[in-house]
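Hello again, I could really use a second opinion on something today. I've been staring at a protein lately and its backbone has me curious. Please have a think about how the structure follows from the sequence. I owe you a coffee for this, so here goes:
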Amino acid sequence: MLSGLLPLALAICPVSARAQDPVPGFSIDQVTERVLSGNRDLQAASLARDAARSGIVAAQALPNPKLDLTGGRAAPRFGAASSTTVQAFGASQLIESSALRGSRIDVARALERGAGHTIAQVRNDLVALTRLGAFEALLRQEEADAAAEALRLLDQVRERVRVRVDSGEAPRYELIKADAEIITARQRRDAARSEPPRRWRIARALAAGSGARRSGAAAGARCADS
């Protein structure tokens, strides 16, 4: 009689239709923005792009002219003539091949584009992991609410079974089965309630940097497998 009461209660219990925030006081977009602003991987990628842009400026610069100044004393090998002071000035300018200079600029621009792609990849990964954690936190919260409602319904069913057992209309093992269903429902409720905080510990870790990013990805993979 009581077999399958827990799935039935989970199916008929109402699910909240109101919009919820995964973290009280913060929307998903706000949480995502906080993760992006605090992640060290994204900051490092931005600094690498700035360095690449500086490399473009350096590649476009023309070689500086070279100035030479030499001086000394000159004395004849023979004779009694006195020595004289000698000074020489010189200036030279490297004439660089336009093809070589253009190739150097193209390489610097390619490095800048690559740094921009790296920023986009890191940002997309962070947004995906954060939103995955947010929606899973909302899902677990709804599951926790559903499990709590299922437990309430099972308590009502158990009370009716107890009345029937006390009156002799049902055997006592029906009450034992009802107690087992309630224990299972309570365990599921407690497990569902523990999920949202754990998901948002991952989100906080994502804002900390690269090691946490890998742990968040691993957690997301475990959730996908489950």
Residues 1-19, 210-226 have pLDDT under 50 and may be disordered. The domain at 5-59+118-225 is CATH 1.20.1600.10 (Outer membrane efflux proteins (OEP)). The first helix runs from residue 5 to 12. Residues 147 and 189 are 5 Å apart (CA to CA).
